[in-house]
């Protein structure tokens, strides 16, 4: 249902169908977040996601009501054409309607300062649900944001807050899923920056960034699921290089790629977005993005240091001895291998993604 909702969202061109597609995937994620029976943390995650999701849905409907009531239609291109036709519409109502729709979508994307639900929901939900929540909806919301563009510079505000919060929020985290939640907030800042610029090259850079982020997230979450960590603590990765060296190398390369360390693929995505920002004279945002990337690299490198240079604590060693030996099943191994292959292939030959993104963005212009 989540995947179906995202597919419908990508192909929607009417505000009513956009709302139905969003709710189809969101309501399914409500249930998945709280599906772990007997877990108060999972129930809390589902409840928080439900309350804030209902709030953002209300904002979205109110914004749609303002725009559709003014123009007399529900089709996105028709509304944009009517608003740009020079007719005498109330600018206040148009601005409020666009702002409410944009804020609702930023809620769904966990963009700062509307990210308050993400760390708790990511941590409390089952890991499979967290992976689904962090990966699948991003592409659908990206397509809608590209189609409607920026509204009263709210995207630029989201870019600045997301980069700052994503870099500083994860520094003191001890759980890997909370760290990935703040990491996602920071990455959404880079994606929104390309949409805010609005040029062909910047949207192409944002699309490539989203694709690479999805691939790297699949690889990370598949590895975490394969390890079957007890509490999803970062220190549980200690000694992984001795017990599972291949898996340790995969996880280390993926985290370094997410950090944007050259010549890995994460650097390619950030470089393309930064280049488009420099071309369009976003110099202050460029400086903030570079500083936040350096700060964010600290906690990714810290995980790599724990994997290779920190032994497991005595408590974790004793808990592992009580558990039976965990074998990685074929599906998880295949998923991890496919993700790592794409990361390595893109590092040496990125032309495929560049061409696909060029064709995809060309349809919008």
Describe this structure in words.
This protein is mainly alpha-helical and 365 residues long. It has two domains: 1-147, no CATH class; 150-364, no CATH class. The protein has helices at 2-10, 15-33, 40-71, 76-83, 91-108, 118-124, 127-148, 154-169, 176-197, 200-227, 240-243, 245-259, 265-279, 283-309, 314-322, 330-348, 351-362. Helix 1 runs antiparallel to helix 2 (15-33), helix 8 (154-169) packs antiparallel against helix 9 (176-197) and helix 10 (200-227) runs antiparallel to helix 12 (245-259). The protein is globular and about 70 Å long. The model has no long low-confidence stretch (mean pLDDT 83). This is NADH:ubiquinone reductase (H(+)-translocating). It is a multi-pass membrane protein. Keywords: Membrane, Mitochondrion, Transmembrane, Transmembrane helix.
List keywords for this structure.
mainly alpha; globular
> Which value, in Å, is the CA radius of gyration?
21 Å
Domain tally: 2
Strand content: under 5%
The structure class reads mainly alpha
The largest sheet, given as strand count, sense and whether it forms a barrel, is: none
- Helix coverage percent of residues? over 70%
Silhouette:
globular
- Record field, number of beta strands: 0
The number of helical elements comes to 17
Topology as a string of helices (H) and strands (E):
HHHHHHHHHHHHHHHHH
- Average pLDDT, all residues: 83
> What is the first-to-last residue Cα distance?
31 Å
Report the uncertain regions. Answer: none
